[in-house]
Amino acid sequence: MSVLRTVADWLDERTASRSSREKWLEHPVVGGGAWASAIAASVATCFAVLALTGLVLMTAYAPSPQTAWASVHYIEFVQPAGWLVRGLHYWAAQSLFVLAAVHVVHGALSGSYRKPGEIGWWLTLLVLGMAVAEGITGGLLPWDQLGWWARVVEGNIAGLAPVVGGFIAQMIAGGPELGALGLTRAFTLHVMLLPPIVGLALWGRRLASAASSATPAVGRTSTPVARTFAPTFAFSVCISAAVVLALFALVGRAHGAPLEAPADPLSDYPARPEWFLLPMFQLRKFFHGALEFWGTSLVPGAAAGYLVMLPWIDREPRSARSRALFVFAPVVAIFVGAVVLSEVARAHDAHDTHYVKARAKADALATAVVQLAMNGVPPAGPLAMMRGDPEIHGRELFDKHCASCHVLGDLGDAEKATATKLDGWGTPPWIEAMIHDPDGPQFFGRGPYKEQMPSVDTRPAAKPPGEPWTPMIKTDVEKHAVALFLASLGDEPGDPPRALDAKTRAAGDKIVTERCTSCHLYKGQGDDEGSNVAPELAGYGSIAWTRTQVANPATVATYREKALDETMKKHMPRFDTDLSPADVDVVARWTRAHARATSFAGR
Amino acid sequence: MSDDARNAGNGGTAPMGRRGALKTLAAVGGAVGCGAIAVPTVRFLVAPALGAVGGGNWIKTVAVDSLPEGEPKRVALVADHRDAWTLEKQVELGAAWILRKGAAVVAWSTVCPHLGCAVDKSGSGPGFNCPCHDSSFDADGQRLNGPSPRALDSLATRVEDGFVMVQFQRFRQGTPEKDPI
Predict the structure, then answer these.
(1) Which residue of A lies nearest to B45 if distances are taken between CA atoms?
(2) Residue A213 CA to chain centroid, in angstroms?
(3) Which of A187, A249, A268, A600 could covalently link to A430 via disulfide, CB atoms 3.0 to 4.6 Å apart?
């Protein structure tokens, strides 16, 4: 103890540390009372947490389009306690917007902006503005879909400004398109430029409040009793800070911080702004054309201007009624209006099926890419990683090129499909159902092959009564054998073993060879006398067959010469002209694997 | 009495003393020093805002045979892409909606002329729709509804050796005129 005391004495002699600490603890606190200081303390706690966790995050974050997403992924999912540090940073930021807004509303309603509190009030508004600016710049840093698209739209909104709009938009984006320099600029603003402004504003607020504590506020009869900071206020400050911290830890633990798929300029992403900008997003819907810029900058501008001007608007000692009209009503209208606009935007999106579907697609992709990146991200970046992954890239290719006609699993639109539904394609249940009812809407009923294939066991409706008709397949046992045998033709070495005994195989082979080849080719043989419509059955559903069909359906290996004929309206196009051989292979393998893994639902 | 006050009292009539000369020199030196730092700093920061995409390249896309009649198809525009210090060989710069009507081929940028989201095929009708602010366009790219100030941006096309060539170009967002950047 005596050593400590000696050190403290030594320090105090040279720096007056003891007395300045006492001076700080004894500093008088005025205005607002316990609630106000609890809110202010929570805001300060948020900033402290943000500064500390931000510094820690910087030791693992790498701001470039190739590395940003990967390093955030590393922080979130690999680095020990990374999810907690990032979660604290993220949730402290979210809380800050709420607390800073509450702080402003509380200050407005309690009249803290009145002489001599004007400077403190403006600095409070500045802190709220800086919090929003930090949120906007920080949102881009993960370089994921959410942040990237929000920034593209925000940059273009800035670009709507007359004359200087284009210049400002390019200053934000770091060039004509949002790219590497846009990211490093946002990073610099976020960690180097804005934080000192926040720090100065908070410090200035304290100085201003200390200076104004000596002057009685307008409307008050006397100087309020200056209570000292310690111990009552120090206690409420510590308690509120502890509560805020505990909340961050709980929420961060439950939800982590979100990370969407890497920024992909070519995706169909349903862009939405950060939640605290949703009111502006909704406001935008009311102003179109030339009105857009003015409507969406003047309305929020007027609201901000009103808050800045409050010290002059509410200067005179007012009656309770006029105060309610000129201060209470507008302040409540601004903040309640913002909440209502946000909720309207959310409700609209929740009922927009197109949006809900696109959102679900984005979420599924995020989950898949996050999982994929657990194995590490190549130096070319996460987009290159996605394009090189057969599962993610195969799904993307199917969605872009196949799902406008086909349905498979959750891809494609069953209402608008004109080609075969591929759930269970090539499996025995699918083949068995298809040969019974080829013109069913889930098979060929909506495409050019309608009425090209007869049912193997149902009398054609067009056949006049009395005319003789023999089914191609007479019993369910035969039909089952044919389906099993045909399905086995598409098997590949890695596939699960198929329960197909020699007797069934022989029966299936016999029926296919003898009865199906009147239209179909089987191992290149068939006697359809040149109609050239029915596909080759050998290898039907195998990787090679599927790949050939995707590349060019009009070869004898699959759907034959007539497949691309003008008369076959809405026929399947060839893809070898617009996809690389590698992409054709990826989408063929993906489609085959997923068709087989998805069970045939019958409809 | 300080030197300052004495100088001030003399007004402009007295010859400039040693202190006055030093003050002027300090001011000039300071201004030169600040300028020496400010000029390169500002040039550095503003430079990226003055560049252009340098669009206008003709990019080879899909075979004209592979385009279904009357059904718009989204195709990637693949070329080399330079982003500050990074050069990516043959990557997707953007995309275009391409529509074949008989022998004619038309193309539109997928970038919404409003605020730059990716325009998708409409969920309900034959045209296009932007998922961000609900601008909608008909099957000819003309504006139907929503905040977009103009029709979809058409891109120049020509057919060469059976392939559709598209002239890649970006346009300024949010203006009624189509203004290339």
Answers:
(1) A171
(2) 48
(3) A600
